[in-house]
Model the fold of this input.
Amino acid sequence: MTDIKKIVKDKYSSIVLDNSNCCGGTTNCCGPESYTVFSENYETLEGYNKDADYNLGCGIPTEYAQINLGDSVLDLGSGAGNDCFVARAIVGEAGKVIGLDFTDAMIQKANSNRDKLGYANVEFVKGDIESMPLLNQSFDVIISNCVLNLVPDKDKAFAEMCRVLKPGAHFCVSDVVITGNLPESIKKDAEMYAGCVSGAIQKEEYLGIISKAGFTNVVVKKEKEIRLSDELLSAYLTNEQILEFRNSQTGIYSITVYADKI
Done:
């Protein structure tokens, strides 16, 4: 696979540019199934804004993030602002929400959504998760939704998260992990990488990276197995290979993980 970051940036930029009138909600009209297969319904959550929802997440990290009124919250890979606006409803006027994303199109869309809503305490910053342009010990809570599995160097990403969190702070992220082995044709495909499938690593390896970065009380708050449709798999596998994949011990899961900074 070529430059992973360029692949991800190009794919997510195209989602914004090609779907400016995206319908939001629980439908898959905002992109191919490989991007939206993991998404959950945000429509009942306070702060939800359909213009910010491209169905690109794999959980609802704010559900377990223990965000309090007045907290300073960082959303990694904030996209069009969906999770930021939900977090803003929790922190209130006294809090602050920063969304970090490295895609210009997403930053522009998020700023447009923020301006329409009139939120003075939500800010979107362009930057790389592996080297955040943010001060040490700045945040009470970090959230992220189906993004960290797209980062090539996850050790750097979680180390950076530890750096920008305040002492005693914590994070809650939703992400995609696997058990077993994905077929090579899926692992090597750029589209499936950008769609959070081929970039996923083993569950135990993922949790181990978190502990290694300096976090404690690592808990999987929610886990859901994802079944890829035969229609999607047929773009990468023969019918025989699909059957073999179905009968294997390979599992693809969305997990929501909580951890405290030591």
The longest strand covers residues 165-179. The CA atoms of residues 111 and 252 lie 33 Å apart.
